[in-house]
Write a sequence for this structure.
C-alpha cells in the first residue's frame, strides 16, 4: 500500500471523519462504520485533505488535467483545496468549478456553473467525498456534457472519491465506482478503499481501532451488502 494511503487512513481517524460503531445510513442500512467529509472543518485539515486528493489524482490520472469539478455542495471545498494543493505539489495550475443547485440568472457569472466555465477541449476530473449508489453522477454528468458545443468536446478523465465503501450499488453486485466506470466510460477511483482500511488497521495493524468485535461486524455487514 502506498505511503500516502496509510497516512490518509490515520488522517481520517484523527479528524474523526471515519468512525466505527453503529450508524444508520441514508439508505436505511445499519452500518458498522461511517464516513463524513463534512467533518473536515479546519483550515489545516482542508489543506491536508487537498494534498491527499492531489496525490491520488497524480497517481491515478497524471498531469494532463485542466479542471477539477466538485459537485455542490460538499464537492466545492474539495475541488478548491485540491486545486491549491496540486499547484503547490506539482506546479500545475488546474482550474476549479462546480454546479449550482439553482441557476444564477443575473450578473457577469450567471448560469449553472460556479467558477471556471468548462469548454470544449477541457479535460475534467470530478471530485467527490464518497459514493454508495452513484446517484450524484447521474445529476452531474449531463450538466457537464451540456456545456459542450460539439459531441465529445469535453473529456471527463475520471472521478476520484476519498473512500470506496466497497458496497454493492442498487440492483447489481458491483460497487458504485465500478458501475460508474462501466456506464460512463471513465475510470472512478478512491484515495483508499475499505479493504485497505481494514488491512491497515486490522490485518497489519494493532487492532485498537478495528477490534476483533468490530471486524466481526464488518464481516457480517459485507456478507450482506458487499460488492462481488
Amino acid at each position: 500500500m502506498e505511503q500516502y494511503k496509510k497516512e490518509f487512513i490515520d488522517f481520517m481517524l484523527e479528524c474523526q471523519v471515519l468512525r466505527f460503531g453503529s450508524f444508520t445510513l441514508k439508505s436505511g442500512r445499519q452500518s458498522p462504520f461511517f464516513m463524513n467529509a463534512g467533518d473536515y472543518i479546519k483550515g489545516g485539515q482542508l489543506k491536508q485533505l487537498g494534498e491527499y486528493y492531489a496525490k491520488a489524482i497524480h497517481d491515478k490520472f497524471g498531469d494532463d488535467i485542466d479542471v477539477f469539478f466538485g459537485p455542490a455542495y460538499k464537492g466545492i471545498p474539495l475541488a478548491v483545496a485540491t486545486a491549491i494543493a496540486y499547484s503547490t505539489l506539482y506546479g500545475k495550475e488546474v482550474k476549479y468549478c462546480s454546479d449550482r443547485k439553482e441557476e444564477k440568472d443575473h450578473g457577469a457569472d450567471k448560469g449553472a456553473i460556479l467558477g471556471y466555465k468548462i469548454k470544449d477541449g477541457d479535460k475534467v476530473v470530478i471530485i467527490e467525498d464518497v459514493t454508495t449508489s452513484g446517484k450524484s453522477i447521474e445529476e452531474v454528468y449531463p450538466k457537464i456534457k451540456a456545456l459542450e458545443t460539439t459531441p465529445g468536446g469535453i473529456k471527463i478523465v475520471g472521478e476520484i472519491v476519498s473512500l470506496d465503501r466497497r458496497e454493492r450499488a442498487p440492483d447489481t453486485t458491483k460497487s458504485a465506482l465500478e458501475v460508474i466506470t462501466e456506464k460512463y466510460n471513465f475510470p472512478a477511483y478512491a484515495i483508499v478503499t475499505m479493504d485497505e482500511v481494514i488491512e491497515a488497521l486490522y490485518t497489519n495493524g494493532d487492532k485498537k481501532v478495528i477490534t476483533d468485535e468490530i471486524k466481526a461486524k464488518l464481516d457480517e455487514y459485507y456478507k450482506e451488502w458487499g460488492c462481488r
Notes: The chain is about 40% helix and 25% strand.
